[in-house]
Please model this.
Amino acid sequence: MVRPPFRTQRERVSHALQRRATLEAMRRPAALLSGIDPCDADPLLVRSALHHGVLAARDCPVCTSQRLMVLNYVFGDQLGQFSGRIKSAEELCEMETEVGEFKVRVVEVCPDCNWNHLIETYVLGDGVRRPPPRRQRTVEDIYG
Ligand SMILES: [Zn+2]
Model:
């Protein structure tokens, strides 16, 4: 996976330390007693990963599966109804010049053991505030 350069990337926060701490905690016998289970991805998240995810350039840290997927979720007031959606790296590049500011949460998901963890967050956008996109009718509006 080659990450395109994001021109406007800022406020990047890596969650690598928390990820490592979670993995270490899982391997301690106490984890079995406490009922901690980070391999708790819900079926919807796993399905999203299989349909929209990009293969991570590493194996699953829990089961060594090579199907570890990465998903980019976008959030922000300026996204209107599109806040909370999954976007590809190419879409994020386009959004940089279309949206003033939005947050990206990068999550890794293993479809084989349900491991899931936040990898990093960052902010993108050209800083130009615009009204959120007009609400469009969605499948949920029609059939929901
Ligand atoms: Zn796994």
About this structure: The first strand starts at residue 10 and ends at 14. The beta strands are 10-14, 54-55, 69-75, 102-109, 116-124. The chain is about 30% helix and 20% strand. The two ends are 36 Å apart (CA to CA).
